[in-house]
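Thread: Modeling a multi-component assembly for a lab meeting

Hi all, long-time lurker, first post. My supervisor asked me to bring a structural picture of a complex we are working on to next week's group meeting, and I have zero experience with this. I have the sequence lines for every component (1008 residues in total). Could someone generate the structure of the whole assembly? Inputs are pasted exactly as I received them:
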Amino acid sequence: MFFLHNLERRVTLHPSYFGRNMHDLVTTKLVKDVEGTCAGDYYIIAIMDTFDVSEGLVLPGSGLAEFTVGYRAVVWRPFKGEVVDAIASSVNPHGFFAQAGPLRLFVSAHLIPDEIKYDANATPPQFTNNADMVIEPSTHLRVKIIGLRTEVGEMWAIGSINGDFLGCLQA
Amino acid sequence: MSKTLRLGPRLRYPITIVNLLKQPGDAVKKQQPLFRYSYKWMKEVGDAIRDDTWEEEQTSSATFDSPTEGDLKQWLIKEGQVIRADCPGLVVKEACGHEIQFQGMCGICGKDMTEVSWASETRDTDRAPISMVHDQTSLTVSKTQAQRTENELQKRLLQSRKLTLVVDLDQTIIHACIDPTVGEWQKDPTNPNYESVKNVKAFQLNDGPRGVAHQCWYYIKMRPRLEEFLRRIATMYELHVYTMGTRAYAEGVARIVDPERKLFGNRVISRDENGNMFAKSLQRLFPVSTNMVVIIDDRADVWPKNRSNLIKVSPYDFFRGIGDINSSFLPKRQDIITPAADIPAVNGNGAPPVGGKKAKEGEAAAPAEGDLAVTQLQVEEQKRALEKQMMDRPLQLLQLKQDKEDEEAEKATTQSENSQDAPPSSQPQTRHQVLRDDDDELEYLEQHLTRLHKVYFEEHDRELQDAAATDDFQLPDVGRTLSTLKRRAMRGVTVALTGMIPNGVTVEDTEIGQQLRSFGATVASRITRDVTHLVVNTLRPMTDKWRQARRIPSIKIVNQDWLAACFSQWATVDETPYLFSVASNGAPAPAVEEASDPDVASGSDEDAPPKGIKRLRLKAPTLKLVGVGGDTQELDGDESDDEDDGEDELEAEFNNLAPDALEDGQLSPIDGLKSFNWGSVDEELDEFLASGSDDDDDDEDEDEDEDEGMTDADGPAATRKRKFDADEDKEEGGTDSEVPSSQETAGSRSGRTSQAKRLRRTKSARGTSSLRNQYVSDVDGEEAGKQKKSSLPTPQVTGDEDGGELNGLDAEMEAEMEAELMAEFEAAPGIMVEEKG
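Re: Modeling a multi-component assembly
Sure thing. I ran the full set together rather than chain by chain. Output:
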């Protein structure tokens, strides 16, 4: 799910940047550092704006200035049970991998409807019910997240297409 | 699926079950109490300060918490039961077996597998330990799941009557290099290599190591007729790619080899997913059964566990001297059969060059498994190697060299225009190409694979018929089929190798030896009558074994190309094109050898010293002329006066000459004593005593004598002894001709009784004296130097080393300069050779 989230971050600036447009530089640096990263259990998708840039404090010893920046960002936090759209990336006999934006999902063969079978003879190998459902790399899918795990800077999920309205998206 | 839970060893046995908290059919959650039990224990009570304590038995109760989640099916214990040791307690129908796991989550129920709790003794992540997917390491499965998947795979393959073929990329089906020269040649139709390189495909890689080699072009040359080969093979085999390159590289190559992805599909595994930098393993892809898997690879040593399934192909070396660009991680290869046609090796990238690669073997220690530091080091090395290839442009160098040679050759014949400037149309012959596209390995490989497929399925059908009766079908093992097929190839052939493998390595352990055996040939470590073929390395001809083998007409002496041809054709190929002849290799022609023959004969015919001794000495590898001359003479002797014991003696002699059987070598001198003329020995001694006038360097000699544990005596006796030492050494050099001199003298001396030594000494003095006039000093020296030089670049010395010393000695003796002889004798062999050569 997407959220607009108020966040805070300390940004340091090199003395050579001290000057009139310091706050712009701080914002630029913030955007560069933060956008597109995984912060624990959510991804920071985009920074809307910074609403509070504190006064810079020169750090003793290094000369860098530290700003505490409050900013508003669009974050995406996948939840267990959430249904997301994803693109299949690779298929193997145990299931297939899919990518929902930055999130890597695995859908095991157990969580694929019974009529959709693995077909190793196809090129490339695919899951198919020999009708409208063909899951091969680059297929668009609707997947329900049933498990999530995070590590520092990374996130993975287990998905399922076993349910109503899940599975291949008709183009 | 049901799972029987044990109570575990952690409980304080004996325990008494108080009551069961769950009934069969109840759902249980993780860490939920299942039953209550009581146990007894001793508690220390009383006043510890006054030291007035005693133990009292206490009864406590505790609960047993469920280590798993599911439905309780059955209790195997009952209330009131006393349990004395770990035993099965209950049966639970698990909600999820966690058989597929991805990044620490169960792929079936989505639960976090990395959680640990007090209730369970094993971790859930251990339930799915097997990684068997090509492009992932994070996806693991349980044993049963692996089994299931593999059974399905086998069923499917059997239905379509296919086998699995695991294909290596580098130097097996393609040859890759990153030398930008190739790109330039491709754009230049006037280049002599244009024809060869115009079909070279290229791709750019973004994930390569940073630096010079970043974003460089990879030039991929497919092995000739690869496309047809793969297309035909794909009807019989399901193809997998297994490479030591990176993922991106593997996919890049796969795109070139198989643009429609029909052949390999997504079955590509690379170094990134292999989980091991140094070895490939079929178990990575087929953890349960490799009964239907065949491998083709140019290196056997990277498949330590799956040799039986491996078909080793000869490495494809199109970009000459480049080697395998992805092999920096692997140990240096030992198994190359260098083509007999001399190839100037350009060591482009630290990967083993074609020729004298052994020179840098010292640095290539066997990599410690899982050693991160080493791996890091090798990543660096790989990067450096790639950069080096970019910068050095080995191919360009090679071509320049070739051009230069051509130029010179041209100048030598006609004073025509410079070949570099000449239009190629008018003078197509002037510039020779470096790259030649003349490889026919795949043709044979296809034959073998087709045959293997046929035989396997014949076997399978037979088995199936049998199974119809006995109801016990067992999938035949293609590894066994392959071994049977291969073993027929060279059956009955006994091969001896010379100059091919390093000293001190048993032939059986080497790659070539193992391969020979897999083809059903017998590998002989020394020349006997049983040997049918002697394989001579043309870069190191003129070895001792070669000389021995020359005397047995039944031995076919062939060059290493014969071996390569046999390996690739799976047959004992006709030897005729591969016969090794001395003249063609620039070695001294036999005519010269014969020239010295009369001398030899005249010098030795009157007192006829024992054959064994004479032969042994004459066998000394670098006493070339004398040795070969002696051979001739000896053979004459065999025919004329030695007919009675000719056969036996020949055999015995072979044993004596054996390179790695020191025991035999030790026996030989004593054998020779049986027919020894002791009278002439005494005469010889007297002669020495009379003539011994060179006592100046007794001191130098002392070390030598002390080595032998003998006390040196003064005066003429010392001289005599010293003289014998010299002779003895020469003698030993002849005996253990395959062992380098220093090692040999030390080795053969130690462990012999002084008595035997004395005997031998006398004998050898005798033997030498009669042959003294045979030594041809100047030619010997030259020859010795030459041989020494030829064997220098590699550590694979096959015994040529000691010749320098021996020759030096002979020369001095010939000149009767005793003092100098001693000085030389004390000096190291290497120094002497330098003086001589």
